[in-house]
Amino acid sequence: MSRPFALLLAALCLLPLSACDETGPGLTLEQGVDVAVDDAILARDRGDYAQAVDLLGQALESEPTNAVVRVELATTLLQRDGIDLIDLDRVGQYLTTFTGETGSAATAGRGVCSYASDPNAEAFDPAGVDGFEDILAYAETLEEAKDLLQGLLPDAIQSFDLCTTVVDGELAYDREGAVADLRALGLSEDRIAQALAVSAVSTFMQAYLYISEELPETTTWYRLSDGSIAICADDEDAVRDQAEGSIRGLGQALLSLDTRASLLGSGSVAAEIVDTALEVYIEFEDAVADYCTAE
Fold this sequence. Notes:
Layout: H1 3-12, H2 29-45, H3 49-62, H4 67-80, H5 85-96, E1 121-124, H6 132-137, H7 139-148, H8 155-158, E2 166-167, E3 170-171, H9 175-183, H10 189-214, E4 219-224, E5 229-233, H11 236-264, H12 269-288
Antiparallel strand pairs: 1-4, 2-3, 4-5
């Protein structure tokens, strides 16, 4: 190659719209996306989240339905903001652990609450968990991560039913079918576990933020000494209607956690978090209302 031609080629590769992109000449679009994903993971592992998000964003633009890209981008967003299953477990423990101390809570405006003078009940603010402001600050990240998984999660998880999925404290759904559906998307076992962790964290935290911050009906929340949760409200029927979507969200998060635990095996930390999430779901569902009671 002559020197003038080599210089011309080098100059052309500096042009923004040239064909000399980072994926290299001769690579197919699929190969280019694979390279972008690999490079993004390397960037994420060394803490360069900006580059990782940029690479995965470009890959998503090229292949919007690519399940691997969606899972890796959602995972990266949560890692960038330091949101993980430990936060879910921490919130769950806070909500259900009776301390025996008098707490503060948003108080219902009218009427008499039977729990107010109960020595086995303590008022608490559901937004009082340590680090709540950080969780609130990352609400948009949680929404974005959840949206990235839309269309990927199996019906067995997304179609959580308030009346039939949790029966006598046990989960009744098709675990094996859920995992098979995720494998059919071309996801490895590790990426399935990633997707389910992202789903659990983003869905659980969004439901928690709504219950603690946005529930329109004013309520007073109580922890009881037996580990259960109770509420008092001016209009408990209104609370039931307003919170139904969030209760279902807690259930979907629970199924994501349980499916993940089935992949990782019993006795794992994942299985312990399932127990916490199940307790939170049951207590919130019982506290707000029995959605399956015939009218």
